[in-house]
Design brief:
mainly alpha, 4 helices, 2 domains, 74% helix, elongated
């Protein structure tokens, strides 16, 4: 449900957001021991945003894929420099 809430929020689909929020309320009524509290929703959203901010084109850096990121960032920087130079010429 937190996934659906996040997707609805990012796509600004407020009908889906409201439906999911209502599903959470129903869930909380059925499973009081496992309630999803507003703090849980906020923590989930914060963790997702942090993970997105740390990712590069949808891939989260790790020790295993660090070499790939270094090369990708260098190549991206080269392309941006090239485009900037071309824009200056025009």
């Amino acid at each position: 449900m937190l996934d659906r809430l996040d997707i609805a929020d990012r796509h600004e689909n407020w009908d889906a957001y409201e439906k999911t929020y209502n599903d959470i309320i129903k869930f909380n009524g059925l499973y009081a021991k496992y309630k999803i509290l507003p703090k849980d929703m906020a923590d989930s959203a914060e963790a997702r945003n942090k993970k997105r901010a740390q990712s590069y084109r949808g891939v989260e850096p790790s020790k295993k894929n660090d070499p790939m990121f270094g090369e990708a960032l260098v190549n991206t920087r080269r392309e941006l420099d090239k485009l900037e130079q071309e824009a200056k010429k025009k």
